[in-house]
Write a structure and sequence with these properties.
This protein has 621 residues and is of the alpha+beta class. It has a single domain (3-132, 145-291, 413-618), classed as Glutamine Phosphoribosylpyrophosphate, subunit 1, domain 1.
């Protein structure tokens, strides 16, 4: 099926779903992608087309998330007087049902929450943890070599202790308004009555069909037809087992998941896997605790205070490093989608990823020089390494203030099966939450209607590098694997008002997607939908610069220009970001407009959703 055909199918599916739920109105623009000969889907979450999205406006509140049914659940909760956290819980439970390949209660999440009344931003860490029986050589095979990635993923060995529900329960106790049990009702009703499989879900199932079939029941019959093919777009799918699970958690709180029969079934599924058993125990589940951390923040272009998730995520740190390096250049003058801007931003990414690979891991186990990594003077020194006529190629990590131990470089993969939601409630409270089960369909282990994560493969498979230096992100019992998730909240640096909320799925490229959108908003004067629409491109720790295939920057002139500066250019159709953002759009009580205001007469908030996925933004008026 060509990309254009898939795009039309996705557009038809979304139009029907959106019409049945709620309407987000406005105007927007999109990229022009062209089909490529011999195009193939790329796991773990294959691209499912490109559908231009309209910028959405609302006066009271707003939700931007990855599926129209999930957005409807969140908007309905807000209409009942629910808080941003209440809406996030409802959105997440529906996403668990309609986008099971990406997130759910068998995984974890990072959430930034801004309490407007208290003027306080907190970072909630619901990241999975390694079991007590985990060891540094967990992913080393009998031959003494690291396991092939999918050999490590599929089965029980990769499953970490899920953290999502404990984190959400704690956030709800602190910031919720509606009863906990009410927040599960939209997902329960959809689970029992059924929902039409979206085009993206069907494409994702097709991309992993052979692996799903190999893992057997109950996942095989849930996702696949009798002949082993993916269930088609539009198929009515019911999940009564998940409805029962949700009812138990709604009535008994997170303890119903972490203790008792559900916990016993999770452990049995993991430890009794016939070929790849894991090490999760009942004690691991019962003992899981979320963390509340201080966000990592920095000022960009004087006007903007950008805050993100601290370690163990590398996302907030790397986004701030990228922006801090670009602070030294006139990015606005370079304009978007030009050779110079693609070169410069890619060079900033290279420097940030070099540091990320060496220094960032669980701060409860290693010394992460977080303050040093985002120190303006340090980032100024890193910026001086950039030349506009030549790429850095594979830059070495720097030596930020606070480094105590020589560490080895981590090369662990970080794959893009994740989802992001941005929410603002009528009282101005904000949630920016990125949620994941890691690889597409996680570990492929299904229990009581939900999938379990494979988050342990976010650790380095080896404990030392080739030179024998310890790797910060190695496996240790109780440790949280490094992440790239970058939920972000942007403030007016002068007034302290929230200006925007944004984030994305996309594995290690989350950093690039999120930074790209902030640059679009802050430097190039784009509205939130236009910033999200910007073509994806980027680089990590080597000379390869990837361009979104068929986008406005994927031209012979730009590719040749990058090559002349030493870049190795790769064209990819798997840059499937899932950006979801909300910005303050209208006039404040003080009479001031937001920094990102573009159409104050249209509504208090403006929302955007990534055209590369099936989400929308909408709210109440």
């Amino acid at each position: 099926m060509s990309l254009i055909t898939r795009r039309r199918a996705l557009h038809a599916t979304l139009s029907a779903l959106a019409a049945a739920t709620l309407v987000a109105c406005g105007g927007g623009s999109g990229l022009a992608l062209q089909p490529e000969p011999g195009e193939q889907y790329v796991p773990p979450e294959p691209p499912s087309g490109y559908t231009p999205k309209a910028i959405a406006y609302a006066n009271k509140d707003m939700v931007s998330a990855a599926n129209p049914l999930a957005v409807k659940a969140g908007v309905d909760i807000l209409a009942k007087g629910g808080s941003a956290v209440d809406a996030a819980i409802a959105v997440q439970m529906v996403l668990n049902l309609v986008e099971p390949q990406s997130s759910g209660i068998g995984g974890g999440a990072f959430m930034l929450h801004y309490d407007k009344g208290a003027s306080k931003l907190l970072a909630y860490d619901g990241r999975e943890t390694a079991p007590a029986k985990a060891t540094p050589d967990q992913f080393i095979g009998a031959d003494g070599k690291p396991l092939a990635f999918l050999n490590a993923v599929d089965g029980g060995l990769s499953v970490g202790t899920p953290g999502l529900l404990r984190m959400l329960e704690a956030a709800h106790k602190a910031h919720g308004k509606l009863p906990w049990k009410d927040l599960f009702e939209p997902a329960i009703q959809l689970s029992e009555n059924g929902f039409p499989i979206s085009q993206r879900m069907s494409v994702s199932i097709a991309g992993s069909a052979a692996r799903i079939k190999a893992q057997g029941e109950p996942g095989a019959s849930y996702f696949l037809n009798a002949d082993g093919t993916a269930k088609a777009t539009g198929t009515l799918l019911k999940n009564p087992e998940l409805a029962a699970t949700f009812r138990a958690i709604a009535a008994g709180g997170a303890d119903a998941f972490y203790k008792g029969a559900i916990a016993a079934d999770i452990v049995a599924k993991v430890t009794q896997h016939p070929t790849n058993p894991g090490r999760l125990s009942l004690d691991d589940l019962a003992g899981y605790t979320h963390k509340v951390r201080e966000p990592v923040c920095g000022v960009y272009r004087v006007q903007y205070r950008v805050c993100g998730m601290p370690a163990p995520s590398s996302g907030g740190i790397a986004v701030l490093q990228t922006l801090g390096i670009l602070q030294n250049f006139d990015v606005a003058a370079l304009k978007p989608n030009t050779l110079d801007s693609v070169h410069l931003v890619s060079e900033a990414y290279r420097l940030a990823y070099a540091d990320r690979a060496l220094y960032v891991a669980d701060p409860d186990f290693v010394n992460v020089p977080q303050d040093g990594l985002v120190n303006p003077a340090y980032l100024n020194s890193r910026a001086k390494l950039i030349r506009m006529d030549q790429t850095l190629g594979s830059p070495a990590a720097g030596t930020p203030p606070g480094v105590a131990v020589a560490l080895g470089k981590d090369t662990s993969p970080s794959l893009p099966s994740t989802s992001h939601m941005s929410i603002v409630d009528r009282n101005g409270n904000v949630v920016s939450m990125t949620t994941t089960i890691e690889n597409g369909f996680g570990s492929l282990q299904m229990v009581r209607g939900f999938l379990l994560n494979n988050q342990l493969t976010d650790f380095s498979f080896t404990a030392t590098d080739g030179a024998g230096k310890p790797i910060a992100n190695s496996v240790q019992a109780g440790k949280r694997p490094r992440s790239s998730m970058a939920p972000t909240v942007i403030f007016n640096a002068a007034t302290g008002d929230v200006e925007g909320v944004i984030g994305s799925p996309g594995g290690s490229a989350i950093i690039q997607y999120t930074a790209k959108s902030i640059i679009g908003l802050a430097d190039w004067g784009l509205n939130v939908q236009q910033a999200i629409n910007l073509p994806n491109f980027g680089a990590q720790t080597n000379a390869t610069t990837s361009l979104e295939k068929g986008s406005v920057i994927d031209t012979a002139a730009l590719r040749d220009g990058l090559k002349a500066r030493g870049h190795t250019v790769a064209q990819t159709d798997s840059f499937t970001s899932g950006l979801h953002g909300v910005v303050f759009n209208g006039v404040r009580a003080s009479g001031q407009t937001g920094l990102f205001a573009r159409n104050p007469a249209a509504g208090t908030y403006a929302g955007g959703a990534d055209p590369r996925r099936e989400g929308i933004a909408a709210g109440n008026n």
